[in-house]
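User: Hey, my collaborator sent me this sequence without any context and asked if I could get a structure. I don't really work with proteins. Can you help?
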Amino acid sequence: VLRDIDVIAGDFAMGSPGTCGKDGQGVPVGDGTPTLRVTRLTVGGTAA
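Assistant: No problem. I've predicted the 3D structure and written it out in structure-token form, which is a compact way to encode the shape of the chain:
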């Protein structure tokens, strides 16, 4: 999929911060990405 990204927009934004962990041991996490255009992508199925 990474080879098929042909445009990356300038609208990068971070999502709401959160916490990931278990047994009371949490670590702060976050995520974010700009809008991407992918030229080919299989959604469902098994075609390669």
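In plain terms: The two ends are 11 Å apart (CA to CA). You can pass these tokens on to your collaborator as they are.
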